[in-house]
Amino acid sequence: METPVEPLNLASQLKDEHQGKWIAYSPEELKIYAYSEELNGLLQKIKELKKEGLTIQKVLRSDIPFIS
Amino acid sequence: MKFQYQSYNSINPITKQKDIIYRPFIPVDIAYRGNWLSVLSEGYFKYVDALIDTGADTNLGPMDFAKMLGISLKGIEPSKIYGINNQEVECHFVAIALNIGGHIYDTHIGLAKDIPEFVLGGQGFLNHWQVKLEYAKEIELKMTS
């Protein structure tokens, strides 16, 4: 029997203030370490925290369905 | 290789109620002229999440990548692309490399100010991978070329 797959739940971490911004999070810890309007700004914040190996993402606004 | 869908709090556009939405993001590293984002960021960023968009014709990304990867857009003639509502977006296509699950290959990405997210589309992603989407659960990729 296969192990059920659960989606990676960022929902509990993502707040309204993150929408439209870059976030840096740990997929293992499911914890958001920093966010910024700009990618370079995010990198500076993370460097100050000295937290390595994070995944970054531009958070889409959740009240608008994304259509490319 | 397999990845998980990501879930977000949202407003359901049909019911107008709070809901959970699911999006197929996968972790990707991106390079320009051999300079990988993970290395340029001194290891602080290992991956960037990219959205699989089977309706997009090409790989697309926000202009922030140009600044981060040291991409000069001088001399690159912009192309016009069109969204679902026929909105015109001016896009600069540049040659890059992608690392997806340890598979590295050369491709292109269109960078534009108006692109909100790193999008993996037909040319540059779907033409290299067989993709199986199990909505809200799992994403399975197999490289085909």
Task: Offer a few descriptive terms.
heterodimer; A: 68 residues; alpha+beta; 3-stranded antiparallel sheet; globular; B: 145 residues; mainly beta; Cathepsin D, subunit A, domain 1; 8-stranded mixed sheet; 2 helices; 13 strands; 53% strand
Helix content of chain B: under 10%
Percent helix of chain A, as a range, is 10-25%
Portion of residues in beta strands of chain A equals 25-35%
The average pLDDT of chain B is 93
Oligomeric organization of the protein chains: heterodimer
Largest sheet of chain A: 3 strands, antiparallel
The CATH architecture of chain B can be given as: Beta Barrel
Structural class of chain B: mainly beta
Q: Mean pLDDT across all residues of chain A, rounded? A: 83
Order of helices and strands of chain B: EEEEEHEEHEEEEEE
Task: Give the uncertain stretches of chain A in residue-range form.
Answer: none
CATH topology of chain B: Cathepsin D, subunit A, domain 1
Number of strands of chain A: 4
| Unreliable segments of 5+ consecutive residues of chain B | none
Task: Give the percentage of residues in beta strands of chain B.
Answer: over 45%
Strand order of the largest sheet of chain A: 3-2-4
Kindly provide the radius of gyration of chain A, computed on alpha-carbon positions and rounded to a whole number of angstroms. Answer: 14 Å
Total beta strands of chain B: 13
> What is the assigned CATH homologous superfamily of chain B?
Acid Proteases
Order of helices and strands of chain A: EEEHE
Structure notes:
Chain A has 68 residues and is α+β, with helices and mostly antiparallel strands. Chain A has a domain at 17-58. Helix content of chain A is 16%, strand content 26%. Chain A has one helix at residues 39-49; strands spanning 8-9, 22-26, 31-36, 54-58. The longest helix of chain A has 11 residues, at 39-49. The mean pLDDT of chain B is 93. Chain B has a single domain, classed as Cathepsin D, subunit A, domain 1 (Beta Barrel), CATH 2.40.70. The relative contact order of chain B is 0.24. In chain B, the strands form 3 sheets. In chain B, strands 4, 5, 6, 7, 8, 9, 10 and 11 form an 8-stranded mixed sheet that branches. Chain B has helices at 37-40, 64-69, and strands spanning 2-4, 6-11, 18-23, 25-32, 35-36, 45-52, 60-62, 79-82, 88-100, 103-112, 119-120, 129-134, 138-143. Classes of the chains: A alpha+beta (68), B mainly beta (145). Chains A and B meet through strand 1, helix 1 and strand 4 of A and strand 2, strand 3, strand 6 and helix 2 of B. Strand 4 of chain A pairs parallel with strand 6 of chain B, so a sheet runs across the interface.
